[in-house]
Amino acid sequence: MPQTELQKQRNTTLKERPQEPRKYNVIVLNDDFTTFEFVIMIMMTVFRKTQQQAEDIASTTHLHQKSKVGTYTLDIARSKVAKATEMARAENFPLSFEIEPE
C-alpha cells in the first residue's frame, strides 16, 4: 500500500474516534436545616467519598455556602443528585444541589 494511502487511513481513523463525554461538577448548597451528619452520610453513600472527604465537603459547604462534590458525566451527575435529593426529602431535609459544566 502506498505511503500516502496509509497516511489517509490513519488520519481517517483519528478523526472517527469518539470524543470524551463532557464533564459536569456537582455542587452541594448550604441550608440551615440539613444536619452535618446527614450531609456526611450522603457524601459517603451516594457520592462514595471517604469519611474525611465527606467531612471536608460538609465543612466547606457550611463556611462558603456551597462546595464541589465531584465531577461526572451528565447522566451520572443527574443520577447521583436525584438519589441524594430523594434521600434528603425522605428525611424532610431541603438539601439541594446544582450541576454545572466543568
Explain the overall architecture.
With 102 residues, this protein is of the alpha+beta class. The chain is 53% helix and 21% strand.
Task: Provide key terms for this protein.
3-stranded antiparallel sheet, 4 helices, single chain
Secondary-structure map with pairings?
Elements: H1 3-15, E1 23-29, H2 36-45, H3 51-64, E2 66-73, H4 74-90, E3 96-101
Antiparallel strand pairs: 1-2, 1-3
CATH superfamily of the domain at 33-102: Ribosomal protein L7/L12, C-terminal domain/Adaptor protein ClpS
**What radius of gyration results from the CA coordinates?**
20 Å
- Helix fraction, binned, reads 40-55%
Terminal residue distance? 44 Å
Stated plainly, the CATH topology of the domain at 33-102 is called Ribosomal Protein L30, Chain: A
Biggest sheet, open or closed, and with what strands and sense?
3 strands, antiparallel
CATH classification class of the domain at 33-102: Alpha Beta
Strand content: 15-25%
Count helical runs.
4
Strand order of the largest sheet: 2-1-3
